[in-house]
């Protein structure tokens, strides 16, 4: 099996019959852990968990804790950790550089990016962005997006939580000089390739699979010609998702889904075929 198998999300299959909760890494240590107040309320009032019930706790850093309810008080749930399992991160870290979309659209993008195993989401402000975020709003927005990503994590069972950056201007992100093996730009321009062509071209040149990929998705109305020129000058490669004009949230989801699929395809990286080490468990 290819080490790329699983693409963005080469993770252990989640146990769908067990309820999942989230705790930050620093709160997921030791033989017992305590659910957050919000999760405890959900566990007690909605799920009606009782002593002895099995649950799973994710810490967003690859650790999955198989637990049992030890104490279920009026407002607190104490869990006994029975087993810890660590799942390595996906072999290719995918960053979504997303022009900030308006309202619910951006929330949907963050939700689906977490489900599709994105490593990082970078919201950028561009000339045609409808949504504009001031410095005072930025921290509040990131907090809300992180909460959405955590809920998505609990739903899909991924042990890795994407990092969500503070929104910044496109020019400021480019000025950081972030390095990626491949950078893609979702585009309707003539001459744009399907991502598969870029992956196969990369393998032919480097004789390995990429370890980091960024994909830029523009706002409604796309990037301006000047912005597109800057992205291409920075190494961005235009990719096509077909002839249809997609909404920005649809384009983001489609890009991540296509990259996920292509990173799983051993035909794109034929020499990288070997077995994949399973996640490590500790009792």
Measured as a percent range, the helix fraction is 25-40%
Number of strands: 13
Described by strand count, sense and barrel closure, the largest sheet is: 7 strands, parallel
The total count of helices amounts to 7
Write the CATH fold name of the largest domain: Alpha/beta knot
Rg, Å, rounded? 20 Å
> Strand share of the residues?
15-25%
| Shape category | globular
- Order of H and E elements: EEHEEEEHEHEEHEHEHEHE
CATH class of the largest domain: Alpha Beta
Counting structural domains, the number is 2
Mean pLDDT metric: 89
CATH homology-level superfamily of the largest domain: SPOUT methyltransferase, trefoil knot domain
Would you kindly provide a written description of the structure presented here, covering whatever features stand out?
The structure is a single chain. This protein is an alpha/beta fold and 283 residues long. It has 2 domains: 12-86, Hypothetical PUA domain-like, domain 1 (Ribosomal Protein L25, Chain P); 93-270, 3-Layer(aba) Sandwich (Alpha/beta knot). It has helices spanning 37-46, 104-115, 135-156, 170-175, 195-206, 225-233, 248-264; strands spanning 19-22, 32-34, 54-58, 63-72, 77-86, 93-99, 120-125, 163-164, 168-169, 182-186, 212-217, 236-239, 280-282. The strands form 2 sheets. Strands 6, 7, 8, 9, 10, 11 and 12 form a 7-stranded parallel beta sheet that branches. Strands 1, 2, 3, 4, 5 and 13 form a 6-stranded mixed beta sheet that branches. The longest helix has 22 residues, at 135-156. It is globular, with a radius of gyration of 20 Å. Mean pLDDT is 89; it is low at 1-7 and 273-278.
């Amino acid at each position: 099996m290819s080490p790329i198998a699983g693409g963005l999300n080469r993770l252990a299959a989640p146990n769908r019959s067990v309820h999942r909760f989230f705790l930050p890494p620093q709160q997921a240590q030791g033989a017992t852990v305590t659910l957050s107040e919000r999760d405890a309320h959900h566990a007690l009032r909605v799920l009606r968990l009782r002593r002895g019930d099995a649950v799973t706790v994710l810490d967003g850093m690859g650790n999955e804790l198989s637990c049992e309810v030890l104490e279920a008080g009026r407002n607190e749930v104490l869990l006994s950790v029975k087993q810890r399992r660590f799942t390595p991160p996906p072999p290719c870290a995918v960053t979504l550089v997303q022009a900030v979309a308006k309202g619910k659209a951006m929330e949907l993008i963050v939700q689906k990016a977490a489900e599709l195993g994105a490593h990082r989401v970078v919201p950028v402000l561009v000339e045609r962005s409808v949504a504009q975020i001031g410095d005072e709003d930025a921290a509040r927005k990131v907090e809300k997006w992180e909460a959405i990503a955590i809920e998505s994590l609990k739903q899909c069972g991924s042990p890795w939580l994407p990092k969500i950056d503070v929104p910044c201007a496109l020019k400021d992100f480019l000025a950081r000089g972030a390095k990626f093996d491949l950078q893609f730009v979702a585009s309707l321009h003539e001459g744009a390739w399907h991502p598969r062509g870029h992956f196969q071209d990369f393998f032919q040149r480097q004789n390995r699979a990429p370890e980091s990929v960024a994909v830029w998705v523009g706002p409604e109305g796309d990037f301006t010609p000047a912005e597109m020129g800057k992205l291409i000058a920075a190494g961005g490669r235009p990719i096509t998702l077909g002839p249809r004009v997609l909404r920005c949230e649809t384009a983001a989801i489609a890009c991540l889904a296509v990259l996920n699929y292509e990173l799983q395809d051993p035909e794109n990286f034929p020499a990288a075929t070997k077995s994949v080490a399973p996640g490590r468990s500790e009792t």
